[in-house]
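Hey L., structure's done. Input below.
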Amino acid sequence: MGRTLQNTMINLGLQNACDEAIYQLGLDMEELEEIEEDAGLGNGGLGRLAACFLDSMATLGLAAYGYGIRYEYGIFNQKIRDGWQVEEADDWLRHGNPWEKARPEYMLPVHFYGRVEHTGTSAKWVDTQVVLALPYDTPVPGYMNNTVNTMRLWSARAPNDFNLRDFNVGDYIQAVLDRNLAENISRVLYPNDNFFEGKELRLKQEYFVVAATLQDIIRRFKASKFGSTDSVRTVFDSFPDQVAIQLNDTHPAMAIPELMRIFVDIEKLPWNKAWDITKRTFAYTNHTVLPEALERWPVDLVEKLLPRHLQIIYEINQRHLDHIASLFPNDVDRLRRMSLIEEGGTKRINMAHLCIVGSHAVNGVAKIHSEIVKTQVFEDFAALEPEKFQNKTNGITPRRWLLLCNPGLAELIAEKIGEGYVRDLSQLAKLHDFVDDDLFIREVAKVKQENKVKFALYLEKEYQVKINPSSMFDVHVKRIHEYKRQLMNCLHIVTMYNRIRRDPAMLFVPRTVIIGGKAAPGYHMAKMIIKLINAVAQVVNNDPVVGSKLKVIFLENYRVSLAEKVIPATDLSEQISTAGTEASGTGNMKFMLNGALTIGTMDGANVEMAEEAGEENLFIFGMRVEDVTELDKEGYNAQQFYSRLPELKQAIDQIQSGFFSPKEPDLFRDVVNMLFHHDRFKVFADYEAYVKCQEKVSELYLNSKAWTKMVIRNIAAAGKFSSDRTIKEYARDIWHVEHSDLKIPPPNEPRD
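Output:
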């Protein structure tokens, strides 16, 4: 979520009044804003997407709730020590959180472990351990519409009789200390992005948020006029018409068997009725195609922690497989491929399969990704129910990612086309009329330059390096992952460095290369990549031959509040994942909206950005999905590229020989060995095209006017990438709810 203060002032239309009041008190609003901690309760794009969606849902007047866990410790703070990433706990609640309100009156029990008792047709889950879920509510204001929605985050609390009810005669002190075991559930965020780690505590977290949320939803449904009760029990027929639940990836997949358990075991609905309601309630968004990211929980673990849920999953699977067998008799391989249970070695539950079978809609997050989901990852399911599969291209909120972070540009745009674009970003297309307006071109360039100067001052303060603000700010910020190919950027830096040294007199367009992002603490290769970037920076930044032509900075502790500073100052946005690996990306959209040009592959939403702006207004390079597939068929041979490309060979030889790590010459042998022998993401295959494309970037940067005209064309084409548009599509195609552009009257005005 990042910080809340400035976003709240903007959405309430109070920013100028507050700035003025604070100024009159002799204080500086910007200094005050810097004191607030980021709420970093997610890992990367997936968590930030949810935050943008909350802003858009409130702005569109949807009665929507965001549910999650109130982690005591969010994503770790990253320190760089001697070039290495070091993690520190993110104690974000240390000074309290003024935006949250605890709601103990809505506290709910969540059950774990135990066993299942069968009596006749009914099942009872008994002898469980209970943990209480305490909700904390944070207001989510819409933009200038007097609407405030709720984000409800659950915190784990031990019941007061925890470990004391079971006559454990003496050890009262130990029993009270053991309360921590229950409360550990909401202690800390697992810091993996695009990687599945099958830990028991993580499964507990996933079920905890699901069980508390579903009880909360059903309580609200029963209290409303729709949950009409006929003295005996609630009629749930209208449930899917009143409730839509969107599963943000498979992390909340246990909601499907949990809702079935509530309907069948507690509310005594017949299975078929319960299943029909469940399917019509849930929809599933897939966020990644990387096999190592797909959740596959061991059956043994689920059986221990949630025995009744395992039985329900088995029953769902049996009925699902019976249906497929009736359509495809004797096709045992299809049954194996489509089962929710993976046999072989340890039996596992494929959570994505559970989500597809238990939902009425499945979507990817960019056109190319949704195609890959349909034709490759889940092709058997798409063949069975093609109408279930959709696309919903991601978006970003223009409130935080333009008005808040780039007021200069926002104001300049408003002068030209009015303020309507803030709620309807498609109006940015009107800027096409000003692509040849010399004054506007100069003003756009001036705003960018001011943002760069401001960020350069920040960098000099934080990193003690002198930055040339007229150099091209070439920025690559996102989680560190092999598929995102920060290594390819690193090889380009080494190549530029070698060119400057070979011919110091040659015309070189000065660059400040900024790379930032966190590596999962257990991801060895990602941590080596950070160390390599810092080792290269050390050499480049201290070589007198290079001087101010090339500077390399690793941006420490990349997070929302830092993104708000670096993105408006960026000239070149790096979006260089191997085609077919980045589901969408949203950073790409933030840079486009803030006047950066994109160098990128035809991957994720880059494809649609090129479609909107015209491919000639992005720097597109490298293999397409088809080329990657073709190369896989032939077999990727890294050695071949190394032998053919002298500059690549030189760069790799330097890294391998210890040129960048003279005290430990073989420090980077793991990295080089990976690039040669098991690089799934084919860095060498795109290196040549990347370097050539970067030459075109430098060439255009020399012509400031032509560069800025291309920037304006990009901003004018960014309208599609508002999360408002994304949410309108979810509302129309999946949730079947109407959004409203009405401004409800403020609370001080009497209503009809």
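The first strand starts at residue 65 and ends at 69. The domain at 407-623+681-727 is CATH 3.40.50.2000 (Rossmann fold).

-- N.
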